[in-house]
Design brief:
This protein is of the alpha/beta class and 232 residues long. 48% of the residues lie in helices and 12% in strands. The protein is globular. The two termini are 29 Å apart. Keywords: DNA-binding, Phosphoprotein, Transcription, Transcription regulation.
Length: 232
């Protein structure tokens, strides 16, 4: 289990004149939230917000373009949800650390984020100082989990038999792409066009997704996505 810093340890000194700033990308589908987070983080004196993104795919694209030290990402975003963003950034930019900042407090979300490669997890009602502490911790190569996330990880470590089944985590990268496009309402033909594959191949991917998730049709797939917080 990743190490957990003590929440509330917020007395970390801010920047010195010659200190290299922590380069941060902020991803959230609400403009006001993004701008508020950018102002809050940059007020710390040692953070430079190098990019903002309003959906999951844009987050991955801008991260690859800017190579931030830390990505602060929401969980529920269009095009790619936060879990998939974490997974892709882990593969494409292993040096970039990802902090999930979300309204979701349930253990299942914490465990999915950690399995995908997140180095930190905070809920959105955390104190501003704790968010700064988390970003600084991740940039220093440590992990940072808020109290609820730390409790979920400790519970998992103590009771591994309670492991939450994660059929979504068993989907391949291509199947997850198909999953999100179908959940967003795209037809099989539209999925094929967007992914530049044949309609038959898209149909096969869709069938495997339904089978792995244990759902029978698109309506049940959408309900699954909503229930798991994988879709706005």
């Amino acid at each position: 289990m990743p190490a957990t810093d003590t929440p509330g340890n917020t007395n970390t000194p801010t920047s010195t004149p010659n200190r290299v700033p922590i380069r941060v990308l902020i991803a959230d589908d609400h403009t006001l939230v993004r701008e508020s987070l950018a102002s809050l983080l940059q007020a710390g004196g040692d953070v430079q917000v190098v990019a903002q993104a309003s959906d999951g795919l844009e987050t991955v694209e801008k991260a690859i373009a800017t190579h931030p030290d830390v990505v602060v990402t929401d969980m529920s975003m269009s095009r790619l949800n936060g879990i998939e963003v974490v997974r892709r950034l882990r593969e494409a930019l292993p040096q970039t650390k990802v902090l999930v900042l979300t309204m979701h407090q349930e253990d299942e979300y914490v465990l999915q984020a950690v399995r995908a490669g997140a180095s930190g997890y905070l809920v959105k009602d955390s104190a501003a100082a704790e968010l700064l502490a988390a970003v600084r911790s991740l940039q220093a190569g440590k992990s940072y989990f808020g109290p609820q996330a730390a409790r979920a990880l400790a519970e998992q470590l103590q009771h591994p038999e309670r492991l939450v089944d994660d059929p979504y985590g068993r989907l391949t990268a291509r199947e997850r792409e198909v999953f999100h496009l179908v959940a967003e309402g795209h037809t099989t033909k539209e999925v094929a066009q967007r992914l530049d594959i044949s309609t038959k191949t898209a149909e096969n991917h869709r069938a495997r997704v339904l089978d792995k998730l244990g759902v029978r049709n698109t309506a049940e797939l959408v309900r699954y996505a909503l229930r798991k917080g994988l879709l706005d």
